Amino acid sequence: MGSIILMGDFNTKIQGPRYKFNPDERSRLMYSLIQEYELFSVNTQMFCHGPVTTFQSYDNGPSTCIDHILMPLSEIGKVSNAKVIDSQPFSVSDHRPILCSITIENSVLTHTEGEQSTRSVSWDRARKFGYINDYSFALSQHLWTSEFPRHEINKLIIEDYYDKIVSAIKQAEQETLPYSIFKPYQKPYWNKSLTHLRDMMRLKRIEWLNNCNCHDLNAMRSIITSRRKGLFVTLKDPQLTNMKVLLRRKLKMTLTLTKSPYGSFLISGNRSHTPVQL
């Protein structure tokens, strides 16, 4: 049986070499659990880089370490790298992500082996497009070359003849029959409407990220205030324009502009005033 790794938001603090705190009831229960099953938190170890805390509340509120990657204590030597990521510009969460690289044995199937194990013959397509006849002909050709044992029959000869039959079947199958590949992550409920909604959500998220800092409420208030001011100016613009027009007309009616060797002066058309140089 392999090792079990637990990860996620446990909503409780776990002490470690680089994270100390005054335990509460919840953290004491968690501590007893990891002691019972001999576990440890990867991101509370000294080899983990980045911030100690993984949860940062908005607007510079309290921060704690409640997200963990728990592994058996006997597997601590398999952790090659661990890091808590900070200041991720595309993160809209108040939790910091944790990265962890673990060295495992070569007992896991490779990508090619995994693909071959999930392939199967699509018999419905084979019947629909008439591939069955091609398969039968190819199989008969491959079996024709396999001679039936004529000498003394023993266990080894039977196994060898059996292997030849299986090989002929597989070869004919690969040459003539269509395959259906199992997709473990395919979502059967997905449709075009969900695709459209997903694309709209992405566009709204990009727009939101471009317009504000999601973790800074002051920035959001500033943007809202500036937009309100812009709306106010837009609404008041016709009144301001009319006022400017009236002022210009009033100035033209009451003031005349005269030229002088000493400069330009404004002189009232009805009364004499001390010239004011412009």
Automatic annotation (TrEMBL):
Domain of life: Eukaryota
InterPro entries referenced in this protein's UniProt entry, alphabetically: Endo/exonu/phosph_ase_sf
Protein name, UniProt field: Endonuclease/exonuclease/phosphatase domain-containing protein
